[in-house]
Amino acid sequence: MTIPCDILVFGGTGDLALHKLLPALYHLFREARLDPAVRIIALARRNLPRNDYLKLAERHCRAQIARSNFEEDVWQRFSARLDYFPMDASQSADFGRLARYLGEPGGLTRIFYLATAPNLFVPIANHLRNAGLADAEARIVLEKPIGHSLESATAINEAIGAVFEENQVFRIDHYLGKETVQNLMALRFANALLEPVWRNNQVDHVQISVCETLGVENRGGYYDRAGAIRDMLQNHLLQLLCLVAMEPPSQFEAEAVRDEKVKILRALKPITGQDVQDKTVRGQYGAGRIGGQEVPAYYFEKDVDNDSDTETFVAVEAHIDNWRWAGVPFYLRTGKRMARRSSQIVIQFKPVPHELFSGAQVNQLLIQLQPDERISLRMMTKSPGKGMRLEPVDLDLNLAQVFSQTRRWEAYERLLLDVLDGDSTLFMRRDEVEAAWAWVDPIIKGWEEHFQPPRNYGAGNNGPEQASALLAHQGRHWYS
Ligand code: BG6
């Protein structure tokens, strides 16, 4: 059971609130994890009566929640805890109205969830302070992206830090709330077997891929200014890289875990000058077919510039300059409108030192994050019959099947619960966000300076050819 609190969701009529946050809160409510005194207050500009908001919320929640989990009586009780407060988050007077509406905290912690564009983070924090709402108990949750560069992220962090202490700030990267991503830590730090081979003398290279079939949906305006590097690589992919590469923390506790992650981000070898051309690839999808349907080219998407050169795909060869990982390439790639939705981490081990049998003999550990949650270890085995003909066979751990009796939690359920519990382990600390930008900024700058336009790839493909070349010249290829 959580603490009694008011959860205020700025951006209450937006996609994030309606598709992710409210369904997650419904599940937590249904499973009696929320204190009965918890109130959820959605805030947005639209002047809606409460009842209309409840109808909107219900429509979206019904669409997101499995039918077997959507229960009328639970919804009635849940929606009784849900309110809507129309306000303009850029107007200080509206925060005075909000403070009057909320009244005295009376033992309730206030959680401010900013599901808004990042340019509103600082004005909202300042208005909350001026209206007397940012007390020492309050918590503020910020959605990625935090800024669009190191400079803007630092400015946001400074301004937020002037209102809230670091332990009151929860910077969400929803990938850290995914079960399989947390499993990565369990896999590494609860199985002694892997530790001796988890280093450069055994690992040939690592691949981290997050491929989507979705396009930019209704977010063209935001996405066209961000692109794949800011939207995905700076945060989700670098967080995954940290979990693969970090040293074991001394305790499973917020500061210890984040100290180790930040060391990895700081050890990333900068990609500058000619390396920007040689070690990165940007792409943009053209027209094509996804699941049998024709889809338009990126620059014809809603709210996207017709001559946009924003990348919808990025691939990077990263290196970590430390003892454990020296010489091991980490290939990262992410893209929209790709052949299939699949996120995975592949640890490719080195071949055996002396070949007894003919053919490539390599082990590969695959950690599939989505759509299936699987961990499999590719082993070489002898195929039946005469002779020593070898074949790779997978030792397969299908987590969805193993835990088939347990409902799989959505990332936001876990993360919201952690905010209510005041546990920041799975949230990005200020220095992590800034270290990630410090590595990404020179790549973006290099693209601008050398005018590196994105390479075209047809929707429904695996990204531009150049992404394959990034590995091929070293005799490697992307796992598919
Ligand atoms: C978000 C990005 O952070 O993650 C989106 O802004 C992307 O562009 C989404 O589609 C992917 O999340 P998931 O959980 O579907 O892999």
What does this structure look like?
- The chain has 480 residues and is α/β, with parallel strands linked by helices.
- It folds into 2 domains: 5-172, Rossmann fold, CATH 3.40.50; 178-408 and 430-472, Dihydrodipicolinate Reductase, domain 2 (2-Layer Sandwich).
- The protein has 14 helices and 17 strands.
- The protein has a 9-stranded mixed β-sheet, with helices on both faces. Strands 3-2-1-4-5-6 form a 6-stranded parallel β-sheet, sandwiched between helices.
- A hairpin with a 7-residue loop joins strand 15 (374-382) and strand 16 (390-398).
- Helix 6 (150-161) packs antiparallel against helix 13, helix 8 (220-245) packs across helix 13 (430-449) and helix 9 (254-267) runs parallel beside helix 13 (430-449).
- The longest helix has 26 residues, at 220-245.
- The chain is globular.
- The mean pLDDT is 95.
- The structure holds 6-O-phosphono-beta-D-glucopyranose.
Fold blueprint:
Layout: E1 5-10, H1 15-30, E2 39-44, H2 50-64, H3 72-79, E3 82-86, H4 92-102, E4 109-114, H5 121-130, E5 139-143, H6 150-161, E6 169-172, H7 179-189, E7 203-211, H8 220-245, H9 254-267, H10 274-279, E8 280-286, E9 288-290, E10 293-295, E11 313-318, E12 330-335, E13 342-349, E14 364-370, E15 374-382, E16 390-398, H11 399-402, H12 411-421, H13 430-449, E17 455-458, H14 465-472
Bound molecules: 6-O-phosphono-beta-D-glucopyranose (BG6).
* Strand arrangement across the biggest beta sheet: 16-15-14-13-7-12-11-8-17
List the ligand species: 6-O-phosphono-beta-D-glucopyranose
What's the rounded overall pLDDT mean?
A: 95
Low-confidence stretches: none
Largest sheet: 9 strands, mixed
Percent of residues in helical segments? 25-40%
CATH H level, superfamily name of the largest domain: Dihydrodipicolinate Reductase, domain 2
- End-to-end Cα distance: 43 Å
CATH architecture label of the largest domain: 2-Layer Sandwich
- Overall tally of domains: 2
Q: Please indicate the percent range of residues in DSSP E strands (runs of 2 or more).
A: 15-25%
Whole-number radius of gyration?
A: 24 Å
Number of strands: 17
Class by helix and strand content? alpha/beta
What is the CATH class of the largest domain? Alpha Beta
**Helix tally?**
14
The coarse overall form would be globular
Stated plainly, the CATH topology of the largest domain is called Dihydrodipicolinate Reductase, domain 2
